[in-house]
Amino acid sequence: MTETSYRAARTVHEWAGFYHALVVRRSALVAGAGPIVTGFSATTDALHRITGASLTRLLTAGPSGSEIFDAGLGTLGGWLAEGRDGELFIDDVGGEPLLEALVGMAEKVQCGGTSVQASWSWSQLGLHPLLALLNRNPRQLGATPAGVRLATADGGVPVHSITPVAGMSVPSNHVLELSAGLTGAGVQVQRSSRITVVFARKRLQLDEAFLRISPSAVRGGVGMVSGLNGLGRAREKVLPIVADTVAAWNDGGARLVHLELAEYASPGELAQVMTAVGPHVHSVGMNASELERLVGGGDPAQRAAEFAAAHGLLRVVVHGDHWAMSVHRADPEREELALGAGSLAAANRAANGEPQAEWAVPVRARFSSELPVAGRLDGGYRMTIVATPYLTTPRSTIGLGDTFVSGDLLVQANPLDLNRHRRTLSWNTRRP
């Protein structure tokens, strides 16, 4: 398969039926899930819903008195004009009040970071993931979902039984929510999305108690690692620690270990992560934009297969607006179920603004009937794809990728093949 081709894989009506059937299966998926452990990204997010007036202020602001902030604001303006989303780092610890002067105070502060966002989704479903969390100040603990467990000397305990540690809170990430059709200063937002402005350099949650107990807590379940982007020079110190921990998850009996990517400064930065951690993970996830920027353009299935083969992966999962795809050496029906669960979990968050305990097919969801053809690829891989329940005007876009991952791994955490009851994933041996 060297180029993208299309077909009507299912009709719109059939896709709706696929997701309605998945709504019914949610309780069985939750009941059958094994343990989940996840690290190493957790922070807090300050949410701002951008209006026409605040968009205009962002695009026309004069000097603030901080050259670093003004340079970052210039980059932000370029992203807005180009329609680009993602994570923008502005290395100015005093930048928060300058940004708030332009966009207003946050509507709310909630948990942020892939590990804790996915944990929020799992905890809403009634699961109790073990989360790596080093920052245990009042703001961070208050924003961490109640169902999450943290590691202590006595094992994993509910987050709200932890006594907060006094001290300076880590600055929040500021999430600028942009709705399709929004206009300001001659710029029109074409697609509902978000830009996250980060003022504090990333610090992995290398929680010593978690590093110690998580390998014994993951047997028969899944482990997810995230937050390995933007580490700067610290990566030389922290990546070996992460690699050793993830290898220990495999030795401890994890059914599957997943690495979720994010915004990397360059393919070279990603290559360093994959060299250190890649040999110990089975599955890698990213969104469609990250695939194009980090792996290359062209046929997404072929690029994903090349990436999977280069790193000896069982699967590479790519999620876009209108479709979600797995390039894999696994059971196609299990992969379709996992992609559907991830897409439905994300759609419910998009429709309601936060992860949901119960799933439903959103009334305003639209399905594409024209998708890349599923089938065999080079290197022994297959491509499985689903249409997503896409919302043109979601209530929120924050955390949708993280919520997608939670649904995908919910299926991977189940020990039985829930489609045909004939085999399990057996990719649980540590690779050399």
Q: What features would you describe in this structure?
A:
This protein has 432 residues and is an alpha/beta fold. The protein has two domains: 6-43 and 113-138 and 202-412, Ribokinase (UDP-N-acetylmuramoyl-L-alanine:D-glutamate ligase, 3-Layer(aba) Sandwich), CATH 3.40.1190; 45-112 and 170-198, Adenosine kinase, small domain (2-Layer Sandwich), CATH 3.30.1110. It is 38% helix and 20% strand. It is built from 13 helices and 20 strands. It has helices at 12-32, 52-60, 67-82, 95-103, 114-124, 138-143, 208-217, 235-251, 267-276, 288-294, 300-311, 332-352, 400-412; strands spanning 6-8, 36-39, 43-49, 86-89, 108-112, 130-131, 149-152, 155-158, 173-178, 183-184, 187-188, 193-198, 222-225, 256-260, 283-287, 315-319, 323-328, 370-372, 375-376, 382-387. The strands form four sheets. It has an eleven-stranded mixed sheet with strand order 8-7-6-2-13-14-15-16-17-20-19, sandwiched between helices. Strand 14 (256-260), helix 9 (267-276) and strand 15 (283-287) form a beta-alpha-beta unit. The longest helix is centred in the first third of the chain and has 21 residues, at 12-32. The chain is globular. The protein starts with 5 loop residues before the first strand and ends in a 20-residue tail after the last helix.
N-to-C CA distance: 29 Å
Main beta sheet: strand number and arrangement? 11 strands, mixed
Strand order of the largest sheet: 8-7-6-2-13-14-15-16-17-20-19
- Arithmetic mean of pLDDT: 90
Tell me the number of structural domains: 2
State the helix count: 13
Strand pairing plus helix content: what structural class?
alpha/beta
| Helicity level | 25-40%
| Highest-level CATH class of the largest domain | Alpha Beta
Radius of gyration: 21 Å
